[in-house]
Amino acid sequence: NEDYIYYSDSLHAPYGEKSKEDVINYVDSIVKFLISKNCKMIIVACNTATAFAIKEIRDKYPDIDIIGIEPAYKMIHDFSYNKKTLVMATSGTIHSEKFLNLYHQYDNDNTILLSCEKLATLIENDDDGIEDYLREILPKEKIEAVVLGCTHYPLVKDIIEKIIGPVVFYDGGKGVAQHVSHILDTKELHSDKNSGMIYFIDSSLNEHKKERFFQLLQK
């Protein structure tokens, strides 16, 4: 029942290939825009942006709840500890202090960290070369669990399984959704409307991405 503004910064994507300073500036600009639209909560739905910018943005805008996302590696510790694990993420996320602290805290001593340099760009552009690229970079050994450490990657789960076989996937989306719902409950911020709207904004003004967005949502 909530109204959502989805801001797709495809003009600057993927963030995983940008400097920390640039990402902070991009996120700051978007947060200012969303605050100007009277958003009651902001979700930074990008692992790299969370790793690089979440602390600075929270410090700068303390009066609004800003929720981040990070690779769901703790779920390996909780549910798949003995499974051979692959973490797929951008270079920015893989090498960030935030992720490395999480990884070392919950390391199952059976994990491969894979920096997928081009994957987010290929998905963003709906490129025909996604399968060939994944075949090139995915490990040949048996993998049982995969952590999708970029919010683009769930869109290609079927291709990943086609290459490496059936696996258990983990990503941060469900945990973020539950956390958002909990904050709305706790602070009594839930909308009292019977239905909500979804507004899509793309920084590159790309009509194809707009169409694909609503197609993926089946709306």
Structure, explained:
It contains ten helices and eight strands. It has 219 residues and is of the alpha/beta class. β2, α2 (47-60) and β3 (65-67) form a beta-alpha-beta unit. The longest helix has 17 residues, at 20-36. It is globular and about 50 Å long. The two termini are 15 Å apart.
Topology, element by element:
Blueprint: E1 4-8, H1 20-36, E2 41-43, H2 47-60, E3 65-67, H3 74-79, E4 85-89, H4 91-94, H5 97-106, E5 111-115, H6 119-124, H7 130-137, E6 145-148, H8 157-164, E7 168-170, H9 173-186, E8 198-202, H10 207-216
Parallel strand pairs: 1-8, 2-3, 4-5, 4-6, 6-7
Helix pairs in contact: 1-2
Please identify the structural class as seen in this structure: alpha/beta
What best-fitting shape do the alpha-carbon axes yield? globular
Distance linking N and C termini: 15 Å
Q: Number of helical segments?
A: 10
Let me know the number of strands: 8
- Mean pLDDT, as a whole number? 93
Strand/helix succession? EHEHEHEHHEHHEHEHEH
Work out the helicity level: 40-55%
Question: Numbering strands along the chain, what is their spatial order in the largest sheet?
Answer: 5-4-6-7
Radius of gyration: 18 Å
List unreliable stretches of 5+ residues: none
Compact description:
Helix content is 44%, strand content 15%. It is α/β, with parallel strands linked by helices and 219 residues long.
